[in-house]
Amino acid sequence: MAEAKWYVVHTYSGYExxxxxxxxxxxxxxxxLAEKILEVRVPMQxxxxxxxxxxxxxxxKMFPGYVLLNMEMNDDTWYVVRNTRxxxxxxxxxxxxxxxxxxxxxxxxxxxxxxxxxxxEGDSIAVVAGVWKDTVGVVQKLDFGKQxxxxxxxxxxxETPVEISFAEVRKxx
Length: 173
What we know:
Elements: E1 5-11, H1 16-29, H2 31-34, E2 37-41, E3 44-51, E4 54-61, E5 66-71, H3 75-82, E6 87-90, H4 102-105, E7 124-127, E8 136-143, E9 148-155, E10 158-165, E11 169-171
Antiparallel strand pairs: 1-5, 1-6, 2-5, 3-4, 7-8, 7-11, 8-9, 9-10
């Protein structure tokens, strides 16, 4: 099995979210692709705009016209992505996609190092950082590709699934 790397796909301007949705739908319909194409991202950043004297923080695309994919490159995955509506091609010389380097991924907030965890599905964990800090929940699902754990937390009197980074949780004794 080849190692998954980050690749950049060029899209029609304004089609980034549609391309992301189309690729995710294709992955959903073809289960064998789920282990090959791990993540699809449209990198966003917070920008402060000044309109009519009011400051407003809005999310803008970091790279308009581009989508990032964490995937194993093979003929099948290349074909699926390349033939997705709105995709004009992979970034790289000719038709040969070139993966992003460690240095190129760092400013995007994409971490590639693997975090070792000491909990499994069904364990109780405490959230030690982030928005859900000091929350306790039971692990429902682990995603090693994204390095996240899905836990159920009580929100407005209901059990709600929340995705938390491995780095933000610790196992309860």
